[in-house]
Design brief:
Helix content: 25-40%
Number of domains: 1
Shape: globular
Number of helices: 4
Strand content: 15-25%
Order of helices and strands: EEEHEHEHEHEE
CATH class: Alpha Beta
């Protein structure tokens, strides 16, 4: 079986747009988070598959199309060693099984790529990300940017900067 690190897209790989201390998905421009290249290549060098799991409710809300979301994700895949991308295009009121905090995207990825979820991690910057990882049986890392929303209820590792994450995987400790 494989082990993976599931990465939320906006806030972990790509800078989100912040409005009133809450994060939103950018539509066109990719602005990579500082340290994401080092982290991704370190994880791949340590035999983790990298899988993006991202809620994109603006598709259901008619603010973007799934084709635009896929094009954005493909640009990321051209720059980073991402194995696969799973997108939930639904809104909360759709009650789907894939929208985080439900673990549907992680479960689908596990089945598709023979991933051992107990040996895998989820890294996210919002409570929904981390709780989806916990519900799937993964270890989790919460990157706490201080958004004005509630925090994850599950047991997690917490960091303030993605450059601190590499240390959890045998890398150098970030002294920021």
């Amino acid at each position: 079986m494989n082990r993976a690190v599931f990465l939320d897209r906006d806030g972990i790989i790509n800078h989100p747009i912040i409005i009133n201390d809450k994060p939103y998905s950018p539509k066109k421009m990719i602005a990579y988070m500082e340290g994401i290249f080092d982290l991704c290549y370190h994880l791949v060098d340590n035999d983790y598959l990298l899988v993006i799991v991202t809620n994109q409710p603006d598709v259901a809300r008619g603010k973007t199309t799934i084709e635009e979301v896929n094009a954005f994700n493909n640009r990321i895949k051209q720059s980073l060693p991402i194995w696969d991308v799973f997108v939930c295009p639904h809104d909360d009121l759709d009650y789907c099984e894939c929208r985080k905090p439900k673990p549907g995207m992680l479960l689908r990825a596990s089945k598709k790529h023979d991933i051992d979820l107990k040996q895998s991690w989820l890294i996210g910057d919002r409570w929904k990300d981390v709780e989806a990882g916990d519900r799937a049986g993964c270890q989790t890392i919460f990157v706490d940017y201080g958004y004005k929303e509630h925090r994850p209820a599950c047991q997690i590792h917490t960091v303030a900067d993605i450059r601190e994450i590499q240390w959890h995987f045998g890398g150098e400790k970030y002294e920021g």
